[in-house]
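Appendix C: a fully annotated inverse folding record. The material below is reproduced so that readers can follow the format used throughout the book. The structure is listed first as tokens, followed by the designed sequence.
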């Protein structure tokens, strides 16, 4: 039996499964149901997802966030297209080139200080339209909340969707932390996605307390016409779909998603407030979701990591990333702060 794992600040993916989700998986584990999604659990999950995002949508469960991003964009592009995204986006830096490999598209990264992209920056890539020597921009990919723990406002999103649609493009949103963004903006899922003009959403609840709860969500059903084939060819069609479905139902029913995201965000606020008092620590990004980015003295990083693992974000700048999750406690933060102070 491995030693009982301690909680750290490395990633919201390092947290376990919320006990209610695990219980729901166990409860669904009786008898036989038809595989591949033709079952009452999946039907119930679709029902509740539509209550949150709108009725006229198409939703497909996949195993992971990379799969959701890649297949969602694959469904709406040709290999001669390009995808405009933030330089820091998961699709650009953390998916091992899968978006390029499976869509064939060129990624056009936009430099960003805070993880967000703007229409002005997107315009930089808007050239060579209809010119056969250039890849043709088709998708703008945003991440909400961003990889840097910041959140796009509703206006910022709508400026991008409006620009995209005026220019015959589509907007994808990587919503691996959408629930954290919803809490941060004090809004709801539908308002910042469907109503804001997002076309394709990678909706993730894994970081919110799920086990593998990711869904490609199309707000324009014409775009999903052939998606079921892409999902199967892309090896992301689950046979035992019911166990993914109950994760969505459990998190989205009775506002468990909200409780979890609110808690994770609050813990990030508390962590940020406490480190802000330490002169050797400089917070580098606005803390708007469940991540804290900070520059700390280089020489203490590895010793601090021994007790509470976390990732270095930018080695040159000695910038680190601390993520909180639904199960982070104030005691974890206090212990971490004590350890940090003792090393300084
Ligand atoms: C912004 C973002 N998108 C997507 C993902 C999902 O990736 P995975 O394929 O590991 O589930 C992550 C996970 O860390 C992420 O941070």
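Designed amino acids, in order:
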């Amino acid at each position: 039996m491995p030693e009982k794992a301690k909680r750290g600040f490395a990633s919201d993916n390092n947290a376990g499964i919320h006990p209610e989700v695990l219980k729901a998986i166990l409860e669904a584990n009786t008898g036989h149901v038809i595989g591949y999604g033709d079952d009452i659990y999946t039907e119930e999950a679709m029902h509740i997802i539509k209550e949150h995002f709108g009725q006229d949508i198409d939703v497909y469960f996949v195993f992971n966030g990379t799969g959701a991003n890649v297949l969602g964009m694959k469904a709406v592009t040709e290999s001669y297209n390009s995808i405009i995204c933030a330089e820091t986006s998961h699709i650009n830096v953390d998916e091992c080139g899968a978006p390029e490999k499976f869509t064939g598209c060129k990624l056009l990264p936009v430099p960003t200080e805070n993880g967000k992209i703007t229409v002005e920056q997107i315009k930089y890539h808007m050239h060579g339209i209809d010119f056969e020597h250039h890849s043709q921009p088709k998708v703008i990919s945003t991440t909400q909340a961003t990889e840097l723990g910041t959140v796009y406002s509703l206006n910022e999103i709508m400026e991008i969707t409006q620009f995209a649609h005026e220019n015959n493009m589509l907007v994808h949103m990587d919503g691996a932390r959408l629930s954290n963004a919803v809490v941060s903006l004090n809004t709801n899922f539908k308002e910042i996605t469907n109503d804001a003009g997002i076309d394709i959403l990678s909706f993730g609840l894994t970081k919110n307390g799920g086990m593998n709860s990711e869904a490609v969500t199309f707000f324009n059903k014409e775009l999903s016409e052939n998606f079921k084939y892409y999902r199967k060819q892309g090896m992301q069609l689950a046979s035992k779909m019911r166990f993914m479905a109950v994760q969505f139902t459990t998190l989205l029913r009775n506002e468990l998603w909200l409780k979890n995201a609110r808690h994770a965000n609050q813990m990030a606020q508390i962590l940020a407030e406490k480190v802000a008092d330490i002169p050797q620590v400089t917070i580098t990004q606005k803390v708007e979701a469940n991540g804290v980015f900070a520059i700390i003295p280089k020489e203490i990083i590895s010793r601090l990591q021994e007790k509470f693992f976390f990732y270095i974000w930018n080695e040159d700048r000695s910038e680190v990333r601390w993520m909180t999750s639904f199960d982070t406690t104030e005691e974890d933060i206090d212990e971490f702060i004590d350890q940090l102070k003792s090393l300084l």
